[in-house]
Amino acid sequence: MPATEAVEYLLELLADALGDQRVPEGDCQELRLSPSEIVVFRRLYRSIGNLVTRDALMNALYIDRPDPPGEDTLRLFILRLRRKLPAGFAIESVWSRGYRLTRAEGARFSWEVADPILT
Q1: Is the dihedral of CA 106, 20, 31, 29 positive or negative?
Q2: Between these two residues, 70 and 53, which has the higher pLDDT value?
Q3: What is the spatial distance between Cα 10 and Cα 8, in angstroms, rounded to a whole number?
Q4: Beta-carbon neighbour count of residue 116 at 10 Å?
């Protein structure tokens, strides 16, 4: 794992441990996400508007597994997330690099509307 991705991963673990307020709590019930989809969504949401590499997403999902599945599994999670996102949000593919969660102007998740500090 490249050093920058290792640092990102460690910062994500720290944010989870400290209760990062920029991400939704619980299981994102309004989106009805599976546990693996939650991992991918939270990683993309923390970096909204910025590229998240495929390696960073795979590491977030499978860092503790010596034999992680192939990237087709990640593509499937992305496909499912795209179908579940509300209007105004999209997951863009960045060819051969990764993915980016984007939002249209004024688009908000329900937890952002409830607490304007999170936006």
Answers
A1: negative
A2: 53
A3: 6
A4: 8
